[in-house]
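Narrative summary of target 7.
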Amino acid sequence: MGNYSVIADVSASLIKLLRENMTPDPIPQPEMIGLASPVDKGDFYLSLFLFNVRESGANRQTHMVSRGTDQIQFPPMVVDLSYLLTVQSPAELQSRALDEHRILGRAMQVLYDNSILRGSQTVGTLAEQDEEVRIVMEPFKGESLTNLWNFADTPYRLSVSYTVGPVYIDSTRIKTTKRVTETDFRVEG
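Modeled conformation, tokenized:
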């Protein structure tokens, strides 16, 4: 479970994973992989963009969390994060499409081979709490993906979507309680 920064920690963990596994081949430098909207102009060959956050009903928790002997904390919010992975090669026009296909293929391979992020692959709150998250490719039908690309007349770029979760965001609501500390059993006969 994590504090409010856990969403940023998931994003940083994904970037770390991609940078460690995609450089120097097919991307020459780690700094060419980063978090950015697909419409942002920059030097990224591969960008990751968080485009949707939704509550994960399947993983929703209802039990209170014990915090010592006299406090309980409300259950964490559980969310799934949707990311758009976009490729933009600076190669010449004749080889750009093939270069982008290679980059995308390697990125998909890395995310598939590391479909559960845990331990040393994570940073921040995820690492501190020893949390793990799953990475699953999100199928988009043609029209859904093009609708997602309605950014200010920006031409479509080669992209694929992933869902990452469950991500636990701790509640700040804590309730003071009285716990049973003694029991008295009497048997009368």
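The chain has a mean pLDDT of 87.
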